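Page 37, continued from 36.
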């Protein structure tokens, strides 16, 4: 299944725009690129700032019916990192890291369809820093893709990641997270690191399970953490 590509000079958020269209009954397969977002959104209600001209911000909207939704954003992270550079690592659940700093984020949202395995209009939003943004106010300074790919422009980066992403979503729909898991583990930056969970627990990260849940050795034993429950940071 193909999709059309639409480029807008400015929008509040490419994710918000595709979710609005879906609610209005327009669940088109489309890749929406914004040259500038005035209200880019990150996970957990955070804002996402990309420097105009120095970030690639887009959302791919399409109808999916995977057997299991867990792991989708990890599969997207695997795909983006493989398409971009072998030095890019993955910070569970869905950040791309370059040399221990955040390079890109992924925000997956779904509209309609109810629960379980039903089809849902799915919006995969991706923000990639090309130049490293000003890290003021952030706990760790961000990274930019031009550190490893000098002169990378939004168009050429998009041309590299979009076909890979479209193919990966097909594979995910057919086979779930399983084929992505070893590839995720290969780039897992939390592995064996001491981590702090947002619910206060601490432990040592030990990879991900078959569904993409984070495994953590805690004082209470090995636990599996899902991304809807807690966030995690290395310590
Ligand atoms: C995160 O790091 O928490 C996720 C960041 C996702 C940012 C992208 S930019 C394109 C798309 N539109 C948005 O409003 N957010 C995503």
């Amino acid at each position: 299944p193909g999709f059309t590509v639409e480029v807008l000079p400015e929008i509040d958020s490419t994710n918000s725009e595709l979710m609005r269209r879906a609610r209005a009954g327009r669940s088109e397969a489309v890749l929406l690129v914004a040259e500038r977002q005035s209200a880019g959104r990150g996970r957990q209600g955070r804002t996402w700032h990309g420097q105009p001209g120095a970030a690639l911000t887009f959302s791919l909207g399409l109808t999916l019916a995977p057997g299991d939704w867990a792991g989708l954003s990890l599969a997207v992270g695997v795909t983006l990192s493989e398409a971009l550079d072998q030095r890019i690592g993955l910070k569970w659940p869905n950040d791309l890291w370059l040399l221990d700093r955040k390079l890109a984020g992924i925000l997956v949202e779904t509209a309609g369809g109810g629960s379980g395995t039903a089809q849902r209009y799915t919006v995969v939003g991706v923000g990639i820093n090309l130049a490293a943004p000003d890290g003021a106010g952030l706990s760790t300074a961000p990274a930019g893709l031009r550190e490893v790919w000098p002169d990378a422009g939004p168009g050429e980066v998009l041309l590299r990641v979009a076909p890979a992403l479209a193919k990966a979503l097909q594979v995910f729909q057919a086979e779930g997270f399983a084929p992505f898991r070893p590839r995720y583990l290969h780039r897992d930056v939390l592995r064996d690191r001491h981590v702090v969970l947002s619910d206060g627990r601490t432990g040592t990260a030990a990879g991900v399970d078959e569904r993409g849940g984070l495994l953590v050795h805690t004082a209470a034993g090995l636990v599996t953490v899902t991304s809807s429950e807690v966030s995690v940071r290395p310590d």
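The chain has two domains: 4-186, 194-234. Flag for discussion at group meeting. Residues 154-175 form the longest helix (22 residues).
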